[in-house]
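User: I'm new to structure prediction. If I give you an amino acid sequence, what do you actually give back? Let's try with this one:
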Amino acid sequence: MTLPFAIDRLPPALRHGLALAAFAAALAGAWWQMPQPAPAGFAAPAAGLSAALPAEGGPLPISPRPVARPALALLADGRIAAAWLGGEDDEAAVWFSVLDAGGWRAPVAIANRPSTAGGSFAHVRRIGQPVLHAEGSWLHFWYLGEMVGDSVHYSLSTDDGRHWSRPQRWPERGIPGLGAPRTLTDGGIALPLGSRPADAGGAWLRLDSTGRVVDRIAASGDTTGWPSPDGAPLRLPDGRLLLAGRGDSPALRLWLSDDDGRTWRAGRSLGPAGDGPPALLLGRDGRIHLAYAGSGGREIRHLAFALDWALETAR
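Assistant: Good question. You get back a string of structure tokens that encode the predicted 3D arrangement of the chain. For your 315 residues, that looks like this:
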């Protein structure tokens, strides 16, 4: 008896099951033979550094105090978006504003405990650090929410922050903090798990262009040699690292490294700053933007400057 004839005489339900099993086996074999995507590199900053210009700045719009943990993003049209924590403990919210030709817009709350609990269907004790990243017309927004350990929550805006999607909770747990995201050459995003940059040996999450987690990359170094391990680093167009942090002093200071953080040159001191890491961003005009909490958490301060100004040690 030939095999096709034997199969034809089987009951219909059994023939159907065998066909599905054969299809699954063929699909699995094809998947294992598919070429795996190559690791994506880190995209270079689109802007170059500006020539020496006077520093400009001032406080961000008023929101409930205390304020802490600012984040910055460069929108597609060159404007600067900022988010920060404002308010006491379980009443804290993430506030959002955009800098345009008329100055900073009035801030709006884009996340709080009730909105986070409604999106994750879980009890949220408090919300924490926000992170922003703009890619084309998409503005990605991540922030921490304390449940059983810190969880990451994600929301998206396609209209420069006027409207946001319902926050979604990621399965990642126990994350101590998030760093400044970097664009990958394949269009994805590198989201550091901590302050050390993804391309300077830190642990990070690899996301696709829609913000979905693709992989988790283990850390290959530490920040023990950094003057401010919890400071804000920025990769410059020429490959150097600029760092803003407090170090062992209450004063915020800028540092520059030519060798991926092994040695540092001290730059300008900016005076006392509040708790939490600052934020650094390279603007479309080549100036560097810095946001940090002022002493006592009374305001978030914003400063735009050229690298030459940052490296001057005299006040």
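You can read the tokens as a compact description of the fold. Here is one thing that stands out. The longest strand covers residues 126-135.
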